[in-house]
Amino acid sequence: MTPLYAAKAYGAVMGQVSPLGGTAQPTQVASDFSKMLQGAIEQTQKTTAHAENMMLQQSQGKAELIDAVTAVASAEASLESVIAIRDQVISAYQEILRMPI
Question: Structural domain of residue 82, as residue ranges?
Fold first, then answer.
């Protein structure tokens, strides 16, 4: 992520410019980003709950081990994706803070 792209993203959130050029509505951009984050978090919660359920069923002998392992791996991948998104947001924010005014 370059400082210029981070500045454009910040401007897009503030309603000044779109990251791809032109003008952007701050509420629309913030709303879309918020919905994307909320969807990612909800999906992670669902996959984690499913993995926990599969582990419980497997420990009771009601599910195959491979199904439980697959569910846990899916939950882990989903969590890693959310963590990667969080890290990129933090990195972009820190880059914006380092920009001279």
Answer: 3-98
Could you tell me which of 69, 74, 68 has the C-alpha nearest to residue 56? 68
Cβ atoms within 10 Å of 75's Cβ, excluding its own: 21
pLDDT averaged over the chain?
A: 82
pLDDT in tens, 36-49: 888 889 999 999 99
> Number of folded domains in the chain?
1
Compute the CA torsion angle 72, 76, 77, 83 (nearest 10 deg).
Answer: 160
| DSSP per position, 4-67 | HHHHHHHHHHHTS--TTSS---HHHHHHHHHHHHHHHHHHHHHHHHHHHHHHHHHHTTSS-HHH
Q: How far apart are CA 92 and CA 81, in angstroms?
A: 17
User: What does the pLDDT look like over 46-61, one tens digit per residue?
Assistant: 999 999 999 999 999 9
